[in-house]
Amino acid sequence: MAESTVHVVDDDESFLNAMSRLLRASGFLARTYSSAREFLAEPRADEPGCVLVDLHMPDLGGLDLQAALAQAPYPLPVLFLTGHADTTSTVRAMRGGAEDFLEKTAAKELVLDAVRRALERSRREREERSHRDELRARFAAISAREREVLFQVLRGRLNKQIAGDLGIHERTVKVHRKSIMTKLSVRSVAALAQLSQEAGLPAQS
Amino acid sequence: MSPVTVVWSMIAAACLTLAAVHLPVWWRNREARATLAFSVAAICTAAIALCELAMLKAATPADYVMAQRWINLPIALLFVALAGFAHHHLDARLRWLAVTAIALRLVSLVINFTVGESATFLHATSLHSVPLLGEQVAMAVGTRNPWRAVGHAAVLLLMLYFLAASVHAWRQGRRLAAVLVGGSLTFFMAASLTRAVLVSWQGGNAPSTVSLFALGVVAVMAYALSADLLRARQLVVELSEREREADLVADAANLGTWTRDIVRDSVVASKKLRELFGFAPGEPLTGEDLAQRVHADDRAAFRDRLSQAARRRGEYQSEFRLVLPDGQLRWIAALGRVDFDAKGNPMRSRGACIDITARKEAEREMLHLRQDIAHVGRVSVMGQISAALAHEINQPLGAILRNAEAAALFMQHEAPDLLEISAILEDIRKDDQRASAVIDRIRALLRHEEVAMTTLNMRGVLGDVATLLRPDAAARHVALEFGVPADLPAVRGDQVQIQQVLLNLILNGMDSLEGLRDRPRSVTVTARRDGRAIVEVSVSDSGRGIDAGHFDRIFEPFFTTKAKGIGMGLSISRGIIEAHGGRLWAENTAVGATFRFTLPVTG
Fold this sequence. Notes:
The complex is a heterodimer of chains A (205) and B (603). Helices cover 55% and strands 12% of the residues of chain A. With 205 residues, chain A is of the alpha/beta class. In chain A, strands 2-1-3-4-5 form a 5-stranded parallel sheet, sandwiched between helices. By secondary structure, chain B is of the alpha+beta class. In chain B, strands 4-3-7-6-5 form a 5-stranded antiparallel sheet, sandwiched between helices. In chain B, strands 9-11-12-14-13 form a 5-stranded mixed sheet. Chain B has a two-stranded antiparallel ribbon with strand order 1-2. The interface between A and B is medium-sized, with 26 and 33 residues.
């Protein structure tokens, strides 16, 4: 599994250095960026990590970075840091889905715990993402006719009813069901239903 | 005694008496040249009367011409005296006429003593007897001197001179003097001339009576002079009246007046001035006594003003403090003038003083009030950017904290990286300095101190302002730009107040961009030299500009277009700039509004 990286974005070079030192000393892998643009310009693979960003920066600020990151293929949790927290920007940041919102002078434990939580969430999200991707790949192997049969099964209909609806022979329905179970490697209809839900498959196409 | 002897002797006596009265007047006042001329004329007339008496009573032609020869001497001198009198009393013009007449008369005098027996006769052959005042007096006949025309020409010229003097005096509005003095002088000359023509050229029969006419002229002159005396007396009365008036005005205006005789160093001071300076009435005063009452800090400047006025022949004005004997302080405004004698040496100085303590106190109160308002304005400005400033301070504090925590963790390693730790310590030191620099700048702005006018480098001032505002500008996504040429001359001003004005204008500019997303958001501050003595600073924003209807009102107190504004910023700023001798105004530009202010260049 890839190492988690903490991306620190701040226009204040001194704070940038200090923060990355603390993260390294605490056993994290830290990367520093002096502006939001520099961070966004960097190509990123789907690796676990989080972003620690200064809320107030000239040009693109922390909130802009958060908005841009939300559109990225591999979003990361965003932790905001600010010299001085005022209500307006806190509300805006949290509404934008910020992992946390901390003052730069906040206690070390608060910051590191927040980082750990963010990384945990990143890992979890990444796993969920890859699990979902894998399921999607499995479902992708199912043919169009099989898919129609699957939806009917998930709705709890009997083979005879399905055959009647689709205008095919009941035995053909059985063959399709078997093929579906094999392709998705499940044994019971209950397992099939759970898997479909995990894959985010709509209940009806 | 014969009537002629009595009358002519009396003429002489009267004239000598008049001269005896007036000559001492001239002696005491040498400026009174007319009096001298009159005295000489009177003495000459006395001499003429005596010589003429000798002629009239002559027994032989030789006695007659001898007296006639000598009479010409006082007559010539009389001419000079009369011309002098006309010059001084009537302010006569055409002096060349008088000079030529006197010159001719002197030539005639020379002829008188050199050619023939007198200026009139080459040779007197016999004496006629003619009646005068009921008795017989002598009159010579004989060969006439052809050069007598020179003397007569002199009479003619002098007559013209007097005539011109009369006309001039008349035109100047001195009609009485013109008619009386000018007229009698002219008449005297005209009569002399007529007699000369009738007797000397037409062979008429008339005894010499110059004295009578001369007496008439002397009498008129005496009258004119006594009129002058009367006028002088009237002037004295008027003058003392004016003096009383001036005293009254001075009293009413609370003016203390003084006159100092510089040579004797004695001061005459009015009652009010003694009151102002705390001197008892009647106490003798010197200039030094006055100077000693002046506050020690102001004394040098006070003396300087006085000596400058004495050197440069001028008036002086000064304001200074007095320390009264009871220790009380009093502000005085003084106005004075130095008078000089004919040689240009300072002779007298005089002046007026007024108590301006109340005004000075009001001024000081105003200044304090203005400083208070400016301070409130600064506090309010700082309130507006306090969030950004807290951010600015927490930045280095946060860095220090993170560095210290990191160092503590590094130290727990088995082999701590000492290089890393020393780098951390160095960074901590720098950040500490950074934090205190921000705090110092804030404190400098919030300090409530007397205005201190110093030489300011606008680059430095704008640099400080930039540091204070950058975080706020960043938070509000405003590009804050500064353009100040390196060769901008220094200006004169109070650093804190000028920064306050800049903070106000820049914050206003940033406020004007609030909610605008359709354009680049920028506030640009530039400074440039305008002409020799002025630096112009402008703050331009890319906002929507100022509403046409608001131009007149934006500088008024309590006028605001902002939801949270109190409307004092621009009013205070304008007050500050005007107190610095500059101007602050606003204009709309192609993209937004521009506020400009000027400051005087040092020097």
